[in-house]
UniProtKB/TrEMBL annotation:
EC number: 1.1.1.284
Database matches in Pfam families: ADH_N, ADH_zinc_N
Cofactor: Zn(2+)
Annotated ranges, domain Enoyl reductase (ER): 20-379
Keyword annotations of the record: Metal-binding, NAD, Oxidoreductase, Zinc
Reactions mediated catalytically: a secondary alcohol + NAD(+) = a ketone + NADH + H(+); S-nitrosoglutathione + NADH + H(+) = S-(hydroxysulfenamide)glutathione + NAD(+); S-(hydroxymethyl)glutathione + NAD(+) = S-formylglutathione + NADH + H(+); S-(hydroxymethyl)glutathione + NADP(+) = S-formylglutathione + NADPH + H(+)
Biological-process GO terms, alphabetical: formaldehyde catabolic process
This protein's name: S-(hydroxymethyl)glutathione dehydrogenase
Keyword Iron: no
Organism the protein comes from: Aspergillus taichungensis
Length: 383
């Protein structure tokens, strides 16, 4: 056991004290892990839109003060009583979608969602109802069961997976959300077969990862749709066969984007994905599907209060509307396979890192994310 085991650690974390404000990098006390908990020294974390969404105050469930971050990797510093799945020194990825392997969801074989700590995770506390973080003399909330914007964090033992130390943590962290969400959506959730025509709306980290999964499954046409025309080069680099700027399509052909896709694919796409979070795009993605069997997968997270709509006849005539979280991937049983895919050269990860920052400068990472040229900014947690 490390010399810090069983003791409170004082380290730096980026604390969100209130919505709409910059994060404040300051001292935080991180209590030792209790039974079935793991304390991780976070080495690298990605910054994702969900962090920005909660920080903005638009998430009705967002509570403050909180330590955000859910795309992190590091080393196990110590474990609480009863932890058997990981050991001190393991290289690990934090999982915001836990996997207990015993609840109704985990046993269903139909979903990667796990119900066992959902309520406490949503309230920003550990499964026993308390927090492990304190700063300025008060408790600080956890986020998504991970809180990776801290040099040390405590997670439930079902919210962490060990991966091979051969995978550097600045790459492994990205498998904690964005890349897995897209790649899993294409390879675990969707029915993409050899020759399938696929349309991907939104070429960010998630959409580009779908393109990789579609290539792996032998898709035929892989059509990427994005309002940022600079994304064409990105999309083609990952294996897209076609790129459409929807604004240009409408202006030049006087057709809606869905009609254009139906025309290009002789009746519609076999599978489409929304990776924008825009409910109008979700509708277009559904309506671009082939009659009889086309399926559209919603991945983008829409703003609070938004609703989706289409004519019911679209579904009556056999199109399927579905969605998934974390790409349908079961973190503890399936994430190590994705890490191996990366190490074998079958899954691109390095290419996603367009920006890097240190923890002290984490607010710059949020600023990068809001610009069109950033796919992922990785934050080095060493000060
Ligand atoms: N379901 C999940 O588990 C999960 C996990 C991670 C992220 N997400 C969500 O997935 C979405 C994509 O994440 P990301 O990190 O790739 O985001 P991103 O911002 O990097 O990429 C989004 C892309 O969509 C494009 N876009 C925006 N509006 C568009 C429109 N009307 N038509 C076509 N393209 C449009 C943008 O130009 C951009 O290239 C976000 O909504 C995010 O919150 C969901
Ligand atoms: Zn995320
Ligand atoms: Zn479970």
């Amino acid at each position: 056991m490390a010399s810090t085991a069983g003791k409170t650690i004082t380290c730096k974390a980026a604390i969100a004290w209130s919505p709409g404000e910059d994060l404040s990098v300051e001292d935080v006390q991180v209590a030792p892990p209790r039974a079935h908990e793991v304390r991780i020294k976070i080495l690298h974390t990605g910054v994702c839109h969900t962090d920005a969404y909660t920080l903005s105050g638009k998430d009705p469930e967002g509570a403050f003060p909180v330590i955000l971050g859910h795309e992190g990797a590091g080393i196990v510093e110590s474990v609480g009583e009863g932890v058997t799945s990981v050991s001190v020194g393991d290289t690990v990825v934090a999982l915001y979608t836990p996997e207990c392997q015993t609840c109704k969801f985990c046993l269903s074989g139909k979903t990667n969602l796990c119900g066992s700590i959902r309520t406490t995770q949503g309230r920003g506390v550990m499964p026993d109802g308390t927090s492990r973080f304190r700063a300025r003399g008060r408790d600080i909330l956890h986020f998504m069961g991970t809180s990776t914007f801290a040099e040390y964090t405590v997670v439930a033992d079902i919210s962490v997976v060990a991966v091979t130390p051969k995978c550097p943590t600045d790459r492994a962290c990205l498998l904690g959300c964005g890349i897995t969400t897209g790649y899993g959506a294409a390879t675990v959730v969707a029915d993409i077969r050899k020759g399938s025509n696929v349309a991907v709306f939104g070429a960010g980290c998630v959409g580009l990862s779908i393109v990789q999964g579609a290539v792996r499954n032998g898709a035929g046409r892989i059509i990427v749709v994005d309002i940022n025309k600079d994304k064409e080069e990105w999309a083609r680099r990952f294996g897209a066969t076609h790129f459409l700027d929807p604004v240009r399509v409408v202006a030049e052909s006087k057709m809606s984007i869905q009609d254009k896709l139906v025309e290009m694919t002789d009746g519609g796409c076999d599978v489409t994905f929304d990776c924008t979070g825009n409910v109008g795009v979700m509708r277009a993605a559904l309506e671009a599907c082939h009659k009889g069997w086309g399926e559209s997968i919603v991945i983008g997270v829409a703003a609070a209060g938004q609703e989706i709509s289409t004519r019911p006849f679209q579904l009556v005539t056999g199109r399927v509307w579905r969605g998934c979280a974390f790409g349908g991937v079961k973190g503890r049983s399936q994430l190590p396979d994705l890490v191996n895919d990366y190490l074998k050269g079958d899954l691109k990860v390095d290419e996603f890192i367009t920006h890097r920052e240190k923890l002290a400068n984490i607010n710059a990472a949020f600023a990068h994310m809001k610009k069109g040229d950033c796919i992922r900014c990785v934050v080095d947690m060493s000060i």
